[in-house]
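Batch job 17 of 40 flagged for manual review because the log was empty.
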Amino acid sequence: MANPSEPTVVAARPESRYGKPRRGPSRTVLAVLAVLVVVLGLLIAWAGYQRLGTSDVKGELASFELIDDRTVEVTLSVTREDPSQPVVCIVRGRSLDGSETGRRELLVEPSTEKTVQVRALVKTTRPPVVGDAYGCGTDIPDYLRAPW
């Protein structure tokens, strides 16, 4: 049995037989890993841009008018790449504290113009102070489509 107070001696590997011990990954491995990290970062950035950065339709608030203490009329400018396709936009009314107090989905019918203006009345649960454009998209819910 070895004495725990004595240091353990480890035999050195013969350098002539096994070569010099390596100190870490080679430069080639580090270069390949660096290239992979850059390529992966570019793929993630591209995917994010495709998903969030481009849109076939854009809705911007043109104006709003406070009708009464429960109604706001929102006018929206809708621009789309393909005006022959219908789109859906969401407009809303907001109260003094900034909270959403009313919302309406709006079907924008096909048109010959790339940019059209649409108006919608939004009923609110509290007095509105502003009308707002939440956004537009091409994924139209079934309940907004006309029955065939």
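Reviewer: the log was empty due to a logging misconfiguration, but the result itself is present. The CA atoms of residues 32 and 119 lie 56 Å apart. Unflagging and moving on to job 18.
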